[in-house]
Amino acid sequence: xxxxxxxxxxxxxxxxxxxxxxxxxxxxxxxxxxxxxxxxxxxxxxxxxxxxxxxxxxxxxxxxxxxxxxxxxxxxxxxxxxxxxxxxxxxxxxxxxxxxxxxxxxxxxxxxxxxxxxxxxxxxxxxxxxxxxxxxxxxxxxxxxxxxxxxxxxxxxxxxxxxxxxxxxxxxxxxxxxxxxxxxxxxxxxxxxxxxxxxxxxxxxxxxxxxxxxxxxxxxxxxxxxxxxxxxxxxxxxxxxxxxxxxxxxxxxxxxxxxxxxxxxxxxxxxxxxx
Length: 275
Ligand code: HPA
Prior knowledge:
five-stranded mixed β-barrel; globular; Rossmann fold; 34% helix; binds hypoxanthine; 275 residues; alpha/beta
């Protein structure tokens, strides 16, 4: 475990050298949401595979790059693309970028993702504020010896997705005329999409949207004491809700469609952040 934290500290030192002073916010962009980077001022970039100890993301639609700059006056570290369990990476590898971002100085983590709707009222192109999550991946990034200097052995998971940030975002969305749903996100391993029976099970469990990321990152960020905000971009209705097969292309098309709203909303949320 200490070896892992040494890797994280090396990553944070590397980012400081290459990208400059600490960011206030670490913003993770999911599939098809790269357009957020267009609004970044004074941008400097590194590729994932340049950061000591990192692997690059292999998924289509994920750039695998970190950019440091300013959006709406806020110092931001933009993570374009992420590491997924379904690529064969471990939970520790999946959360390494988040831990490095926090070690680099970020106090707030904004996690965005693409997700399938379980809630039948949701439509492709909607945005959903994550109220809470179900970790259905079967793994936890905190498994193994704990480093007490970095976080508690048994961290509390109530109000995991900061209620103040959620309220702020919902108010902003209303003012901006953006439909922002609110709901429970279930994180699964993937890469297969859900079977109709799995969708039915999740509906019974109170899940509103399902995706293949975010939950491990949120757990690791909470462990280190960061404030967390999560927003899903609903790219499709999950298998049985829709009654037709799903494709990754469809996910990308709807992510692009919702990305204008997501970009405006993220900029507005960032505009309210002062450290
Ligand atoms: N299921 C799981 N992950 C997803 C989906 C889905 O329907 N859409 C986008 N990511």
